[in-house]
Amino acid sequence: MNYKETKAPVSTVTYDREAIEASTDNIYEAISIIAKRATQINSDLKKELVDKLDEFATYNDSLEEVFENKEQIEVSKFYERLPKPTAIAVEEWLSDKIYHRSTTDKKK
């Protein structure tokens, strides 16, 4: 999924509790699902950032020279400006883009 084109807010937003718990009827279950998705998004973004920064890596044994690469700084700043993984996960949850299922049988 392309997280760079998300409409998630960059700053803090207050959400309607009823909208978040609407599909599960349990706020704790909804938050648990959102948290697991945020963890997935965070690991995806971290892997992508590390892969991009590895292109700029120089493997020298001496610590005498430190190079400042403008492209590397721009890549880092771009990822810092992205919305937080939790904001992206909440936006996906409210847009019904997260698939979830209950493992407990509610029919007794």
From TrEMBL:
- One Pfam family name is RNA_pol_Rpb6
The Gene Ontology biological process annotation of the record reads: DNA-templated transcription
Q: Which InterPro entries match?
A: Pol_omega/Rpo6/RPB6 (IPR006110)
Q: Which UniProt keywords apply?
A: DNA-directed RNA polymerase, Transcription
User: Which positions make up the signal peptide?
Assistant: none
An example of a GO molecular function for this protein is:
DNA binding
One cellular-component annotation, GO: DNA-directed RNA polymerase complex
Q: Specify the protein name.
A: RNA polymerase Rpb6
- What is the phylogenetic placement of the source species in the record? Bacteria, Pseudomonadati, Bacteroidota, Flavobacteriia, Flavobacteriales
